[in-house]
Inverse folding.
């Protein structure tokens, strides 16, 4: 969004009309409240950016269908300089040209102002026009969702009056009038310009109905401008106006719409010949994902130091309006309080407004009309003092962090110590810390500007946290979205009916509907389009219930950018849910769940033993977890925190999340039987998501990568990652991405896999983790790797003939008794000493190793795994050592 | 004002024609389009490209042509529609006066700028003043003053009760005497005469007392309000409020003495209650509080003496929240007549009269207003039903007939609302009309009483009633036909319905935390109570207890 510069933030409020009591929609579900409809429709206005329009920033819902809109605001408007006499013709032309520029841009986006009046034509410090409240007509569905008529009566165009006002509370109008067209704004502009020229208000102190009648009677007049001038006693002034201004007035105040020009036509009119040359057409800034060059229009001044000449210290004003508003909220801004302080929100005590009598269908009687529900569209300026005060200690350098060196950490500024202290605080607190968020937002903003070049740094910073304001784009960057996504999305046919439509239609009104955005009709439309686009563009895959939940976080974050939501979803699914959406996905899911239950056994043998005992297998509860990557079970705000980490992890990270969730419910699961467990999971209790993330990272670090090997996982990408590819980090790279060698894991039939309690790991992993290699121990940083111990269960003779260095020899029969209990002996004592380490069982045949592992799990040994292929795999490597006879 | 949208102005079919050159060939693309176009032009463009396999080098050209076409066509539509409207006006199909007055009315009704200025409302001013005072150090004084007024009223009431009982005693004795003589010297006629004489005497006495009470309460109310306003003015006038503070401080002592006189101890019944914290919602969970209480419904209304522990605090709590946005409500089950002559209605009226209501109209006056509202509602409904006669539902017929019989009566499922400042724990009382079906038969979730409950919860949402007390079994007292299975079944139904409504409420008000108290009659056994309290966590998901364990 454009920088705030000298603009202010303004807020105004209004009420959406209340719904008739107890009416259901055609689908049998309750109607969407009007305020939510408006909220959904508002979103697109945030993308309408033009120098002549006040930028819309945010909308929020209050109690009782109240809506508060935040937008760019200026305290001066053209109404102000009417008080001091007339305005010079040059100024009139300038104002009209700029208003028309704004109107034209709006029309291009399908918007009509309808409420054009001097109050809504604001002037910035340089005296340029900024249109305000231009989105009101659009967001209220042409006035259908609010009780009040939109527009000031004096400025309404005759055809607007003739088409009547729509009053939802009046049942006699069953039909909505057609919306007003762009030309009605031209009439309003005409009246406004007339006022500027004449230096007086039109039709002041007249009853509304008489005003409107007067406007309608103008149709019979030949020369409306003269009639108006006569009526207001300013014929002399009007006569003295230059010819082109009078011509402009005439054109605007043409009674018949068909003869009146549109804003676009008027802009090209010869009356503006003199001034149109001063204005250059507006260039839309190039978005992050497009086919055109983002730096194509970048022009550096000849002398670079010109850029630094700006000795103005107010760096905050160079930040985007949305950023400033976001920070304003974090610094304790409260919209309702601001409006209440200015007495715009006045509420009566509820006990005074109770109805007296209510019928069975919910209609209430005896309740006076509450005056506090009336429209007062005064815009209140939100003071930025508190925010500036809060940020006064942030050094100027912090606004322009250097990204040159990949090694440098957070920006070095005075407050960096404080910041590094903040990093250690819980995420929830960091997300509410004004200074911290400012620094993070600036950093991410700059990293995104450098995307994809700065991808590596992005990954690094994302491990700290992702600021909520830029999460949508940050995720896209983490998912590696590139290219002209909009063109790709546009070329997908999202309209032609397909058989999946019905299922999508059923699922959408049940998906994260507690959220205002996703429950709005606009949200539903976007949901439908993105889902359809995905289904249509992936002919080998099908729509499975759950895809809607998966789509929800992307749509929520990129509500105004369906193409990006689609692109993110399309990139996410192959990475984490490869082939989950096949028509017959049972083999994929079965393998996934089996690996998951091995993971449970690996990390929490006690829980695994209990769950297996009562027969509570992952198939009963975990399918929706993994199929939707937990989006079905958590509310959006938790999904965001979970996925911030998930996106950094490899495709096996979800296993760890699953285990972490189970561990949070551990006590209750252990205490309960099958039925209670089923009940518990049918409505998952609250999960502490930050703890869950922390624990799953820990679990992930303890899991050897090949342990989560899946035959049906996404095969290795061909060609690698390209020039901007991230350096392979141990945790984020997938096992599948590694080149396949003889030492890698072999695919295993599902039934064999199911039979094994503990996961297998590859010889490769063992070599890596035990740091065996022919070149001797490498000097790699050891900290990130799990501690490991290799247990060789072959008999002593075989062990003596060659074994993995550092491994201990515990022959199979030596430690377990007849019933599988651990026998007290030196070998088992040694085993006990290694409790907590990753124990790799090595033997001749995998079968005996699996049996040994199963026994260990039974007696609650954690982190037990088996070497895939047994000792024979290692033989060709020449890594086996033979102990010298004396030892 | 009624306009029928002409066929032509709805959706119209237009043909979009686009010519382009491919090598030497000139191709023409013709697309029938429906206007106004609902979908995105970019999508349409993408579809056309795909469908007609249009070469990509004319992609931009096609897009430009398409959007120009759309703009032009929609411009034409707007113009035609607008001029149609102007024409209708010119030829008189639409009346100018009617049109403009409709506009004027909608402006006047909805926007502050054009609305008639508000006449100052004394009630609301008083509300503001009181709300301010009760949240100041003066609150103690206010409460003590209220209490002293309460004491004087209850003294009056006890005096009345004594006098009435004396009269009744005397009359009973007299009647005994007369009955004794019946058949000898006196005839039936004489007995009747005596009886009617007694009745009249009683009536006279009762009326006298009623008048006196009314007068006293009126005086009290006036005095109280004057005092409150004056106190507020004094507080505002003096910046140096030390003097006022003294004034405030002096009074309690004086009043406390007055309060000591005439103690009528309330017997405290052992109250059974159990509280639950629940989570509602599938993904996003909202927290609410539930409470199961075994008590008499009027226990929530009865005003206790300061002597009973906690009563004053409770009283303060109620006073503090009176004009706030967390009100307390109570559901009272009543019959179909709006009065306070019999049953629970009379008991409630007695309780409501025990203390002067310093803020709202007396219950009688409120009921009169309700009666007016009921009549108005019936009239509205009748006129509405007459207009679209075909809309009438089959089921609605006999109900509307029943209402026609006596329009001042209310129907099951309907409720009226009274407001009180003088009850101990309740600000708002929902008088829900129920019929005898509830006592005997088994009911479904579609029962009017349940629907009424839903509407009550809805009003709670819209008017910030955050605590509401609901009779769980939908009866105030137990009778023989209410067996254990009956109770369990009824409780399950109400629990489940309320759960559903509470989940629905989350979408109305954004999931504000509320408290719902389920009330069971006092006569219910302890065992039954615990059975019910076991049932509750099975229906609502009780939030998990936070177990603190040391790290192993």
């Amino acid at each position: 969004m454009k920088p705030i510069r000298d603009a202010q933030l303004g807020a105004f409020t209004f009420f959406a009309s209340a719904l008739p009591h107890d009416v259901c929609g055609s689908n049998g579900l309750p109607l969407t409240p009007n305020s939510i409809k408006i909220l959904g429709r508002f979103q697109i206005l945030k993308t309408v950016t033009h120098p002549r329009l006040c930028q819309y920033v945010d909308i929020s819902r209050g109690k009782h269908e109240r809506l508060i809109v935040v937008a760019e605001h200026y305290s001066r408007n053209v109404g102000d300089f009417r008080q001091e006499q007339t305005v010079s013709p040059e100024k009139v032309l300038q104002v009209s040209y700029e208003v028309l520029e704004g109107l034209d841009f709006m029309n291009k986006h399908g918007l009509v102002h309808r409420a054009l009046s001097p109050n809504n034509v604001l002037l910035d410090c340089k005296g340029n026009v900024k249109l305000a409240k231009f989105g009101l007509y659009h967001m209220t569905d042409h006035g259908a969702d609010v009780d009040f008529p939109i527009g000031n009566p004096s400025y309404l165009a005759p055809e607007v009056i003739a088409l009547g006002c729509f009053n939802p509370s009046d049942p006699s109008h069953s039909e909505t009038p057609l919306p007003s067209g762009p030309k009605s704004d031209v009439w309003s502009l005409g009246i406004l310009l007339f006022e500027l020229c004449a230096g007086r208000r039109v039709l002041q102190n007249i009853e509304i109905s008489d005003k409107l009648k007067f406007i309608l009677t103008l149709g019979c007049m030949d020369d409306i401008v003269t009639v108006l001038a006569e009526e207001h006693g300013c014929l002399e002034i009007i006569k003295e106006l230059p010819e082109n201004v009078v011509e402009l007035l005439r054109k605007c105040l043409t009674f018949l719409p068909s003869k009146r020009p549109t804003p676009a036509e008027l802009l090209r009119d010869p009356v503006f010949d003199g001034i149109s040359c001063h204005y250059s057409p507006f260039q839309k800034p190039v978005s992050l994902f497009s086919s055109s060059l983002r730096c194509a229009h970048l022009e550096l001044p000849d002398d670079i130091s010109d850029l630094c000449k700006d000795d103005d210290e107010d760096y905050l004003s160079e930040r985007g309006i949305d950023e400033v508003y976001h920070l304003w909220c974090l610094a304790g801004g409260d919209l309702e309080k601001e409006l209440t302080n200015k007495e715009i929100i006045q509420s009566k005590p509820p006990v005074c407004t109770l109805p007296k009598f209510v019928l069975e269908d919910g209609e209430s009687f005896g309740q006076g009309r509450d005056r506090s529900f009336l429209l007062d569209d005064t815009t209140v300026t939100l003071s930025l003092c508190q925010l500036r005060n809060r940020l006064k200690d942030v050094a100027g350098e912090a606004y322009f962090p250097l990204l040159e060196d990949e090694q440098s950490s957070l920006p070095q500024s005075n407050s960096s110590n404080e910041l590094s202290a903040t990093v250690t605080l819980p995420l929830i607190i960091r997300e509410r810390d004004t200074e911290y968020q400012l620094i993070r937002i600036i950093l991410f903003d700059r990293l995104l500007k450098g995307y994809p070049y700065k991808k590596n740094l992005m990954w690094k910073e994302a491990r700290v946290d992702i600021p909520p304001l830029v999460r949508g784009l940050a995720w896209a960057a983490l998912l590696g979205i590139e290219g002209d996504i909009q063109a790709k999305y546009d070329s997908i046919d999202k309209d032609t009916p397909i058989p999946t439509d019905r299922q999508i239609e059923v699922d959408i009104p049940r998906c994260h509907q507690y959220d205002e955005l996703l429950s709005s009709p606009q949200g539903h439309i976007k949901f439908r389009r993105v889902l359809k686009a995905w289904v249509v563009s992936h002919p080998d895959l099908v729509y499975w219930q759950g895809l809607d939940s998966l789509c929800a976080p992307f749509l929520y974050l990129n509500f105004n950018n369906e193409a990006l939501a689609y692109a993110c979803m399309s990139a996410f699914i192959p990475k984490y849910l490869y082939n989950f959406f096949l028509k017959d996905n049972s083999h994929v899911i079965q393998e996934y769940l089996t690996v998951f239950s091995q993971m449970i056994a690996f990390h929490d043998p006690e829980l695994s033993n209990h769950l297996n005992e009562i027969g509570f297998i992952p198939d009963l509860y975990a399918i929706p977890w993994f199929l939707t990557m937990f989006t079905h079970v958590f509310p959006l705000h938790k999904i965001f925190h979970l996925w911030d980490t998930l996106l950094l992890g490899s495709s096996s990270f979800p296993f760890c999340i699953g285990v972490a969730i189970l561990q949070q419910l551990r006590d209750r699961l252990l205490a309960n039987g099958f039925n209670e467990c089923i009940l518990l999971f049918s409505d998952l209790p609250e999960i502490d998501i930050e703890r869950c993330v922390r624990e799953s990272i820990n679990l992930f670090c303890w899991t050897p990568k090949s342990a989560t090997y899946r035959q049906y996982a996404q095969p290795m990408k061909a060609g690698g990652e390209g020039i901007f590819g991230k350096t392979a980090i141990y945790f984020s790279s997938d096992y599948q991405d590694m080149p396949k060698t003889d030492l890698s894991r072999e695919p295993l039939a599902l039934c064999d896999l199911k039979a094994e309690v503990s996961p297998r790991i590859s010889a490769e992993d063992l070599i890596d983790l035990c740091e065996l290699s022919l070149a001797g121990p490498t000097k790699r940083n050891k900290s990130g790797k799990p501690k490991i111990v290799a247990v060789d269960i072959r008999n002593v003779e075989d062990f003596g003939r060659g074994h993995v260095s550092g491994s201990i020899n515990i022959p199979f029969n030596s430690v377990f008794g007849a019933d599988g209990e651990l026998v007290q002996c030196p070998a088992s004592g040694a085993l006990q000493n290694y409790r907590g380490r990753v124990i790799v069982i090595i033997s001749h045949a995998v079968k005996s190793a699996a049996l040994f592992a199963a026994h260990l799990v039974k007696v609650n040994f954690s982190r037990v795994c088996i070497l895939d292929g047994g000792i024979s795999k290692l033989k060709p490597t020449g890594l086996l050592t033979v102990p010298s006879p004396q030892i | 004002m009624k306009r029928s949208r002409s066929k032509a102005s709805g959706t119209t079919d237009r043909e979009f024609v686009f010519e382009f050159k491919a090598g030497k060939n000139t191709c023409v693309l013709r697309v029938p389009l429906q206007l106004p176009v609902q979908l995105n032009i970019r999508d349409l463009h993408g579809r056309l490209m795909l469908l007609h396999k249009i070469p990509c080098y004319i992609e931009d050209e096609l897009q430009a042509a398409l959007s120009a076409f759309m703009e032009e066509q929609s411009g034409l539509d707007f113009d035609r529609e607008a001029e149609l409207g102007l024409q209708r006006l010119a030829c008189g199909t639409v009346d100018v006066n009617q049109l403009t007055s409709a506009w004027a009315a909608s402006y006047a009704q909805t926007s502050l700028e054009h609305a008639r200025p508000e006449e100052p409302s004394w009630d609301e001013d008083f509300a503001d003043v009181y709300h301010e005072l009760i949240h100041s150090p003066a609150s103690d004084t206010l409460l003590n003053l209220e209490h002293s007024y309460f004491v004087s009223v209850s003294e009056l009431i006890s005096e009345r009760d004594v006098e009435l009982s004396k009269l009744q005693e005397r009359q009973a004795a007299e009647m005994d005497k007369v009955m004794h003589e019946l058949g000898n010297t006196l005839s039936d006629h004489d007995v009747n005469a005596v009886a009617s004489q007694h009745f009249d005497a009683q009536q006279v006495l009762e009326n006298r007392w009623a008048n006196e009470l009314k007068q006293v309460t009126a005086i009290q109310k006036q005095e109280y309000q004057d005092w409150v306003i004056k106190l507020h003015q004094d507080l505002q006038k003096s910046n140096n409020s030390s003097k006022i503070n003294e004034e405030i401080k002096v009074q309690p002592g004086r009043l406390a003495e007055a309060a000591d006189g005439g103690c009528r101890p309330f017997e405290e019944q052992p109250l059974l209650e159990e509280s639950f914290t629940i989570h509602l919602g599938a993904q996003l969970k909202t927290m609410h509080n539930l409470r199961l209480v075994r008590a008499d419904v009027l226990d929530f209304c009865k005003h206790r003496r300061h002597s009973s522990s906690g009563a004053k605090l409770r009283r303060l709590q109620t006073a503090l929240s009176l004009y706030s946005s967390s009100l307390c409500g109570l559901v009272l089950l009543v019959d179909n007549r709006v009065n306070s002559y019999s049953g629970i209605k009379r008991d409630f009226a007695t309780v409501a009269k025990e203390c002067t209501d310093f803020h709202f109209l007396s219950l009688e006056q409120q009921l009169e207003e309700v009666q007016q509202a009921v009549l108005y509602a019936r009239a509205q409904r009748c006129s509405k039903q007459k207009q679209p006669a075909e809309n009438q539902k089959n089921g609605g017929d006999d109900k509307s007939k029943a209402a026609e019989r006596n329009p001042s009566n209310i129907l099951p499922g309907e409720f009226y609302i009274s407001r009180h400042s003088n009850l101990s724990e309740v600000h708002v009382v929902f008088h829900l009309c129920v019929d005898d079906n509830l006592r005997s038969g088994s009911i479904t979730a579609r029962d009017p009483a349940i629907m009424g409950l839903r509407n009550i919860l809805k009003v709670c949402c819209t008017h910030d009633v955050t605590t509401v007390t609901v009779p769980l079994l939908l009866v105030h007292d137990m009778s023989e036909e209410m067996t254990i299975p009956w109770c369990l079944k009824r409780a399950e139904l109400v629990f489940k319905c309320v759960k559903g409504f509470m989940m629905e409420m989350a979408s109305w008000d954004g999931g504000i935390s509320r408290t719902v108290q389920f009330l069971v009659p006092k006569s219910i056994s302890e065992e039954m109570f615990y059975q019910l309290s076991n049932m509750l966590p099975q229906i609502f998901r009780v939030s998990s207890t936070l177990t603190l364990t040391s790290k192993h």
